[in-house]
Structures are given as structure tokens and as C-alpha cells.
Amino acid sequence: MVKYKMFTKLCEVMHTMKKMVIGGTYVYSGKGFSYSTVKKIRDGGIIDLGYSSWENDQQWIEVLEDNFFIGFINSKTKLIDLDNYCFVMEDNLLCYEKPDFSSEIKICLKRYDKVYLVSKIYNKGRLWLKIYDKHGFRCYIDANSYICPNKFTPYTATLGENTFMYIAPPGKGVIKTIHLKKRNRIYVRGLVPSLSSNSLINNNRIRYIAQSDSLDNPALSKDVWMEIYARGLIGYIPAFTKTKDLLYIKQLPYEHFRQHSIFNAYSHQNKLSLSGLISIVLGVILFFIFPYFSIFAFYLWTLGICLFILKYFCS
């Protein structure tokens, strides 16, 4: 009986999964929102999850803390798999508080830092990625930033710039190249870790590169190549070559970003309507008390009407 309990406990521990919570959530003492809250999980918080079960047409997942059950979260909670991340492949990658270069720099990511992609956002004609770092802090990076998924999947892409494709693995003494133009379609088969290697990178090799000391392995830190298929041939191009339709970006959901400017805040707080009303009232007072200044009264009326119209269009 004791062995059976130990085996059951071991299975439960093995079943636990670490996830990152997006947007924050509450842990409930029972399977329902009517139960008391045990604790609040912050945005970007990392939790251990156990088994899931159904209650009143809703799915609930066990939450564990130090392998002890503490409560349930609803299955609609947005979670990220900690095994699905990207490596930063730049020495210094700036991550901003908002998807805007003019916003505050929140984090400076280093080479081989782990980041988790959540969504993509268009702002001011530029594509941004909403990410979380390994500590669960949220920020935004330019979609053209050089990052590499830890689990590589072959994909089709469009070149975003002109480049040269090497027909044989670079460094093998073969100098034949083919000029590829911007907007050419390519099929990315895998990654090559250095100039002198012709073996594709698998998950273990990606992790090996990430764990290597870039000072001791300059080839690994700088010279990563993509093995591609283009124009009926297999060749190699630098991994930092700009491409469009990247698979790991294409799969991300779009998220709407609304820029909260001072003017919008002023408008949404009904201050435009109040200012327009004050202008009209002052115009009426000025017209009847000081008829000689009626021209200024008309100016105030015009200003008030314009503010009301502006408020209408802003809404």
C-alpha cells in the first residue's frame, strides 16, 4: 500500500508542467469562480500545473506549489509553454515598454537570452513582437530582430534583401555563388552552426550553441548560416539575412495596440465637451453684456462648436 502511494505521488510529480501566465489570473480553492481565491498570479508569473478536470461545463487545472496542491485555475487562462522559446542572437537587443522606438527601454537582452513570443503588433507602419523574458517581464522588440527558435521547423520565406547563396557549405573551398534578389522565394531547411560545418542544427545543437562561450567560440557566436533550397539548388546564406513570412512570426496572433496620447485622454474624459460648452456660454455672456465685442462672442461660439464636432469625431 505504501509503495502504491509512493508510485502515485511520483506519477503526479512527473505529470506537472511549468507554464507562464499571460495577463495574470487567480487561483481558486475549488472548481468555480464562486470559491475563495487562494492567491493571485502576476502577469508573466511561472506556475506548476497538474491534472485537469471538468466542472459545470468548464475545465479547471490543478495548481501546485513545491509539488503540493494549492488550488485551481480556469482552462481559459492564457498560458505559454516554457519549452517553446527563442534565443536572442544579437549582442544587445533593446526591448521597449511600448511598440515604439520613442518609448522607454525596459530591458536590454543579451545574446542567447531566452524570450517567449506572445503576439505581433503593427504600430506606425512597423511590425513589433510582444515578448516575455525568462523572468516573466513583458516588453516589445522590432520584428526584424535577430532571434532563433529553439525548436527549428523548416519553412518557406521571401527574401527581404539581396544576398548571395553559396552552392556548397562555406569554408569547403568552393567559391561558386548565386545572386538572390529581394522577394525571391526560398525554402529554409535548417541551420548550420559555423563556416566549416555542413550538419544541420537540431534542438540539441541549438542548445549547445546557446550554452557555448561566445568568446571561446567566435565561429559559433557569429557565423550561423541557413541551409536553403532556391532555384532548384541547395545552398547557404547568412542566418541574419532579412526574410519575410518567418514561420514563428507568421503563427503569432495579431494584437491591437491603441496609443494613449494626452489628447485622447483629454477627449475621453469629456474635457472637450466641457471646453466647448464654456466657450459658448462665455460667447453668450459677452454678446449681451458687451455688445461692442460681439465679434469676440462669435469667435467663442465658433470655437465651442468646433470642439463639439472634434469630440464627436474622436469618439
Counted by DSSP, the helix tally is 7
- Flag low-confidence runs: 1-14, 197-221, 265-269
Q: Walk across the major sheet and give the strand order.
A: 6-5-4-1-7
Q: What is the percent of helical residues?
A: 25-40%
The CA-CA distance between the termini, in Å, is: 68 Å
- Which class of secondary structure composition applies to the elements? alpha+beta
Structural domain tally: 4
Strand content: 35-45%
Order of helices and strands: HEEEEEEEEEEEEEEEEEEHHEEEHHHH
DSSP strand tally:
21
Task: Kindly report the average pLDDT value.
Answer: 78
Radius of gyration: 29 Å
Largest β sheet strand count, sense and barrel closure: 5 strands, antiparallel
Query: In one word, what is the shape?
Result: flat
How does this model look, in words?
There is one protein chain. The protein is α+β, with helices and mostly antiparallel strands and 315 residues long. It has 4 domains: 2-81, SH3 type barrels (Roll), CATH 2.30.30.40; 86-149, SH3 type barrels (Roll), CATH 2.30.30; 155-246, no CATH class; 262-314, no CATH class. 25% of the residues lie in helices and 37% in strands. It contains 7 helices and 21 strands. It has a 5-stranded antiparallel β-sheet, covered by helices on one side. It has a 5-stranded antiparallel β-sheet with strand order 13-12-11-8-14, with no helix packed on it. A hairpin with an 8-residue loop joins strand 2 and strand 3 (37-41). The chain is flat, with a radius of gyration of 29 Å. Mean pLDDT is 78; it is low at 1-14, 197-221 and 265-269.
